[in-house]
Design a protein that fits this description.
Largest sheet: 2 strands, antiparallel
Order of helices and strands: HHHHHHEHEEHHHHEHHH
CATH topology: ABC transporter involved in vitamin B12 uptake, BtuC
Number of domains: 1
Strand content: 5-15%
Distance between the termini: 28 Å
Structural class: mainly alpha
CATH architecture: Orthogonal Bundle
Radius of gyration: 21 Å
C-alpha cells in the first residue's frame, strides 16, 4: 500500500474519478453516451502517440517530432495512393505510412544514437524541417477525395447504438489502437528489450556494462516512435476522410504532459502504460469539460502546462526521496 501511495498513477486515478463525479453533477451531458463515444474517438490517435512517447521517455530520451512525422507520413501516403489511382486493401496505405514514419524516425536515431547529439535539439530540428516542408512546398495542403476503400473503412464501426441524436458507434480503427497498447504493454513488461529500455533510462553506463547496446536500443525506440506516428497519421486521415498537411502539428505538448503526469520521469527509467493512459484520459476529459462548462478554450494550454509542472514536480520529489533513502548522508 505504501508503494502505491508513492506513485503518480494512484493520485491521477483518484483525481480522474473525482473529476468525473464533479463534472457529471454539474452537467448531465458529460455522462451521456454521445459524449463518452466522442471521448473514445478523440483518444484513438493520442493513445498511439502516448505509447511511443512513453518508450522514449523511459529510455532517457525525448521526441517532439512525432506529430510532424505523422503529418508528413499520412499526407505523403495519401498523395501516393490518390495519384496512382490505387483502391486496393487499405493495409497497403498503412504499410506505406508506417514505413515513411520508420525512415523519418531513423533519421532522428542517426543523430541521437550514432552522433550522440541531444535528443531534444535533434527532434526540434527535424520537427521544424518536416512541418516546414509540409507548410511551404505543398500547394493546397489538403486531399479531400480518398479512395473508396479508405472511405468505406472510415464508415465501419465495431458496434453501433441508436440515441436521440441518431446512430453513434466506435470506429473499427479503434482495434488498431488497442493492439498497439497491448504490444507496448507486452514489450515493456515481458520482453528483454523492454527491460533494456528501462535499464538504459535508469543509467546508461550501468546498462552498457550489463551488455546492453545503447545504440541499438535508441535506434529501436526512435524507429518505433516513427512507425507508430505513421500509423496514427493514417488512422487520422481515415477517420477524418481527408488528409490535411497542417493536421496533428503542435500536439506534442498534450502527449508529453500525459506521459509525465502519468509517472514517466524526464530523466528516464520510469513509466507505465496504465499511468500514461489514465493521465491522457484525465487531460482529454479536462479539455472536454472546459467546453461543456463554457470555459474559453485558451485555458486548455494553461491547464496542460500546469499538469506538466505538477507531474514533473511530483517525479522530482520522488527522485529526491529515493536518493535520500539510499544515502542518508545527503539529508544531513
Amino acid at each position: 500500500m505504501k508503494r502505491l501511495l508513492k506513485t503518480n498513477e494512484f493520485y491521477v486515478t483518484i483525481v480522474l474519478v473525482l473529476l468525473i463525479i464533479y463534472i457529471g453533477s454539474q452537467n448531465s451531458a458529460f455522462l451521456s453516451i454521445n459524449n463518452w463515444f466522442d471521448l473514445i474517438r478523440s483518444a484513438i490517435v493520442p493513445v498511439i502517440f502516448v505509447i511511443g512517447t512513453l518508450l522514449v521517455l523511459i529510455s532517457g530520451g525525448i521526441d517532439v517530432s512525432f506529430p510532424a512525422i505523422a503529418a508528413l507520413s499520412m499526407y505523403t501516403t495519401t498523395s501516393i495512393i490518390t495519384n496512382t489511382g490505387y483502391d486496393g486493401p487499405v493495409i497497403v496505405a498503412f504499410m506505406i505510412s508506417a514505413l515513411i514514419g520508420l525512415l523519418l524516425g531513423f533519421i532522428n536515431a542517426i543523430f541521437i544514437a550514432f552522433l550522440k547529439l541531444p535528443a531534444l535539439i535533434v527532434t526540434l530540428g527535424t520537427a521544424s524541417i518536416y512541418s516546414g516542408f509540409l507548410l511551404t512546398f505543398i500547394d493546397d495542403g489538403q486531399i479531400t477525395r480518398l479512395p473508396e476503400a479508405m472511405t468505406n473503412l472510415s464508415k465501419t464501426r465495431i458496434f453501433e447504438i441508436t440515441t436521440e441524436t441518431g446512430m453513434i458507434g466506435i470506429p473499427v480503427v479503434f482495434l488498431i489502437t488497442i493492439a498497439i497498447v497491448i504490444l507496448g504493454w507486452f514489450l515493456l513488461k515481458y520482453s528483454m528489450l523492454g527491460r533494456s529500455i528501462y535499464a538504459l533510462g535508469g543509467d546508461e553506463v550501468s546498462a552498457e556494462r550489463m551488455g546492453i547496446s545503447p545504440v541499438k536500443v535508441k535506434v529501436f525506440v526512435y524507429c518505433f516512435v516513427g512507425t507508430l506516428a505513421g500509423i496514427a497519421g493514417m488512422i487520422h486521415t481515415i477517420m477524418g476522410r481527408n488528409s490535411n498537411a497542417s493536421d496533428l502539428l503542435g500536439g506534442e505538448l498534450l502527449i508529453i504532459a500525459a506521459v509525465v503526469l502519468g509517472g514517466a520521469r524526464i530523466t528516464g527509467g520510469h513509466g507505465t502504460i496504465y499511468g500514461s493512459l489514465v493521465a491522457l484520459l484525465l487531460i482529454l476529459i479536462i479539455e472536454n469539460s472546459l467546453i461543456l462548462l463554457g470555459i474559453p478554450s485558451y485555458w486548455q494550454r494553461f491547464v496542460i502546462g500546469a499538469l506538466i509542472l505538477i507531474g514533473t514536480g511530483f517525479s522530482a520529489v520522488q527522485v529526491k526521496r529515493s536518493l535520500e533513502s539510499r544515502n542518508p548522508i545527503l539529508t544531513e
